Amino acid sequence: MSDTLVPFDEAITRYDPVMGLEVHIELNTATKMFCGCPTEFGAEPNTQTCPVCLALPGALPVVNAKAVESAIRIGLALNCDIAEYCRFARKNYFYPDMPKNFQTSQYDEPIAFDGWTEVEVEGETFRIDIERAHMEEDTGKSLHVGGSTGRIHGAEYSLVDYNRAGIPLIEIVTRTIEVPAEKAPAVARAYVSHLRDLIGGLGVSDVRMDQGSLRADVNLSLKPKGSDTLGTRSETKNVNSFRSVERAVRYEVSRHAGVLDAGEKVVQETRHFHESDGSTSSGREKSDADDYRYFPEPDLAPVSPSRAWVEELRATLPEPPAQRRARLQTEWDFSDLDMRDTIGAGALDLVAATIEAGASPQSARKWWLGELARRANEDGVDLDALAITPGQVAGIQSLIDAGRINDKLARQVFDGVLAGEGTPEEVVTARGLEVVSDDGALGAAVDQAIADDPDAAQKIRDGKHQAVGALIGSVMKQMRGQADAGRVRELILERLS
Amino acid sequence: MSELTRLSADQAAQAIAAGETSSVELTQALLDRIEAVDGAINAFLHVDADGALAAAKASDEQRASGATSYLSGVPIAVKDVFTTVGQPTTCGSKILEGWIPPYDATVVAKLRAAGLPILGKTNMDEFAMGSSTEHSAYGPTRNPWDTDRIPGGSGGGSAAAVAAFEAPLALGTDTGGSIRQPGAVTGTVGVKPTYGGVSRYGLVAMASSLDQAGPVTRTVLDAALLHEVIAGHDPMDSTSIDAPVPAVVAAARRADVKGLRIGLVRELQGSVESGGGFQAGVQARFDDAVGLLTDAGAEVVEVSCPSFVHGIAAYYLVMPSEASSNLARFDAMRYGLRVGPEGVDDPSAEQVMAASRDAGFGDEVKRRIILGTYALSSGYYDAYYGSAQKVRTLIARDFAAAFEQVDLLVSPTSPVTAWPLGEKSDDPLAMYLADVATIPANLAGVPGLSLPVGLADEDQMPVGLQFLAPAMADDRLYNAAAALEGLLEDRWGGRLLDQAPVLEGAR
Amino acid sequence: MSSGISRADVEHLAGLARIELSDAELDRLAVDLPAILEHVAVVQRAAGDDVPAMSHPLPVDNVFRADEVRPSLTPEEALSGAPESDQQRFGVPKILGED
Lengths: 497, 507, 99
What we know:
The complex is a heterotrimer.
Chain A: H1 8-14, E1 15-26, E2 63-64, H2 65-77, E3 81-82, E4 89-92, E5 102-105, E6 112-121, E7 124-137, E8 141-145, E9 157-161, E10 168-174, H3 184-200, E11 214-224, E12 234-239, H4 242-261, E13 269-274, E14 279-285, E15 295-296, H5 307-314, H6 321-332, H7 336-344, H8 348-356, H9 361-379, H10 390-401, H11 407-418, H12 424-431, H13 439-452, H14 454-461, H15 468-478, H16 485-496
Parallel strand pairs in A: 12-13
Antiparallel strand pairs in A: 1-10, 1-11, 3-6, 4-5, 4-15, 6-7, 7-10, 8-9, 11-12, 13-14
Helix pairs in contact in A: 1-4, 3-4, 8-9, 8-10, 10-11, 11-12, 13-15, 13-16, 15-16
Chain B: H1 3-6, H2 9-17, H3 23-41, E1 44-47, H4 49-65, E2 76-79, H5 106-113, E3 118-122, H6 156-163, E4 169-173, H7 180-186, E5 189-192, E6 213-217, H8 220-230, H9 248-254, E7 261-265, H10 280-295, E8 299-303, H11 311-326, H12 349-360, H13 363-376, H14 382-405, E9 408-412, H15 428-433, H16 439-444, E10 448-455, E11 462-468, H17 474-492
Chain C: H1 7-16, H2 23-40, H3 43-46, E1 64-65, H4 75-78, E2 85-86, E3 89-93
Antiparallel strand pairs in C: 2-3
């Protein structure tokens, strides 16, 4: 069944979007939430399990102190109140990759609540209210075997690996977000990106959307303009990049508008986002009849963080993002527009790390917002998913600064590094990209260029130095771009003055 | 019958230490006894002769070369609700038939470390849901006093094994009386420690906030000795108490009730004739025992615990609710019975789960799961589960108020003696009422001990008296029970179990 | 609140509890459960609003463990009870509902 879509710009003339964002953060603790199994990636299946995370009969959970600490720090970074007393709760439902057939989570007593944070979109600041942040655990992973699509429907059987069952998660839930309709997609994207910066700064998670350590579910409903009645909402999952957050909002607005315009009712359901075309498709019907039968987890003691502990943790928080941004802007001598563009591209930390690795602020910005942003866009991924590190970008810039390559050759070095051929140094060597600075070789090429274009040579002798460009071009062609343009110019002028 | 099998655990420990017997000899004698009589009793679901004898040998060798624990070499039977490496753990259910756990329960590990050979796993009501062991998927256990009668439940297997001299010690679990009530109806000693006193890691959970492991023995001192082996803080159990184990063995040896204030719980006594709910013979033996305590210097008063009358109702909401969640893991995906729905070629996971659970769980388990699911469901939570948890607070307050006035509370453990097999098994409510006296302790988390105090006149079946103490004061139970036990044995000229009929097949 | 629980309710609950009850079982439970509920419903009147619910009998809080790795089971141990397994994973039938 295909969706009737009303173009976004048209839809927002009649409807206002109301959004809610649920973000899951996978913590980078050494062990799981309720047992001592390791959390390292890439292990052989079912080698990181124990009676607890396999939910063998008789097993009991014990809370990971570091996870509680991280939860509190996340709550503080989001300006939340930290509960004086809270309990875990069982969320009961059946699913093969959830071994206990209940998830140990928190229900009406989250560890952090009533917070807020601010995001910036094109110079405008939006305040997002945070309803809660709570602790829970991840599920195992199923491989679906057989069936044509490789997704669950049509699979013949599944193979389950419980290595990831029990990994600590923090779920952050916003209150409803109502911003000017045309800004909604960008605000949603900015919020998730901002969480990445904020929580990444705490050191508690890798916060990589492309790796699943930062997951966003987008809830959306539409209100007819001028009305106060909230519409039925849909929940969109499988949103794997910041770009996709924005695209998901746009698509759902278009889709809901199409349904409502036709006089029909929006179905309250969970939808799947498709990276390939930015569409969503129907998943499971999400009814309030999903009766999770929550009750306080009797196997775990309540958590009552002392106020002294909370203050100790507050003192460990890094500089608030707004303050940090202001400081960096001054240090880097960026204009407001430069700063805004950098943040908008999700490149702030990447630029900072590149500068830390030795590049100048301007050059760091140039590469991340220029060449690399273009490539990320082409590949349909976020900047931080590119296979190049800030250190490597700084490395490429330092090769340029040393005169060993030029800007044009640098692009080929980027190609090589992104293709996994090695470090910038290794790529330059392997591909033979080093700029030739040997005057002998350059001189020969210069002489050739002069011989090939006597008219241009004459113009230069006559003082019309604009013609130098043509000769430089000819030399560069001979040298396959591997010449320092500045030195070539000097040599030409030496010979023709 | 071999004299060895009649020894208490304490006597056996001393005999082994004195070189009068060895663990291997004792273990073999018990294995022979099991073979002779268990056909009639059905206390054991699994007997591990090789494993027990190997452990016995290891214990004898260790003793020869150095220090061992006091009970090392004294065999024990373990309720089939505890995980045991190398032996099946079925919880009395078809859904776990043949399941061999890859890990030991903490208490099992403690038994092994202390050198106690594990004879085997004992029968129980399926997933500890029942008061008669008739709900076991593997057939009922029979009361050694009268094999046409129930041995109590859910831990009827452990109690019967000890009562039939198949083991001097057994491990049980008590969620609503499942150690104490079988103790009462089989003439053995059963103790439910303070909640959190003994680790639940490896104890297949029924009701997490109520379950507790405890000793099943023939004497109070034996129970105290076993208590000290199994109790203590366990970092693998977040609900276990981080404090030293109360000095229960010293208390059992002290056995002195002079000056002790003892409260009779008004709501937990009274013969049927006088308007209470207790069998006449039960009330009579209880009254006699209380008389002995008074004679020995205890001060006995009546106290009222008005919320106790709501105990059964609260229990039969809290327990099924927690159990419905704890038993969700039995879904045929990682372990246990897996069957597909009949007539479906390519069933989904959901269908296989539902078919396996229907085939693997018995009627009582299904009844309680459905009841618990209802009590937790949206719209009913406050009225049922939520309200029941409030009643727990009231019951805990009643205990607290009572313990301001007295040091211990007493009541008959069970309102009736062992009833005939089949009499109540079709009437769930009738079965539930058997727990009226034992349930309050589980709801509040306080410790309780059942001691045999005689035989009821009308049927010559054992009667038990229950002591209850404040949380963490388990030692008070052992002190008073040991004193009363001594007085009773003086009167009987021996143990109550000496009066039990000789079993068929026994030598 | 009446303790009326219909056969349809029992069927719904069985679905939530993932138990495929037979018609005979449904019939039986539709009789047993209302009887039990009638007895346990007394709890609703027992305690006032001011009485707190007791979820934990032990008054203990903040029970944590250090974030340190402990030995896991071997894959053989983990899979030892599996009704079906393949490639060191648990084999389960096709899953219909998705999360």
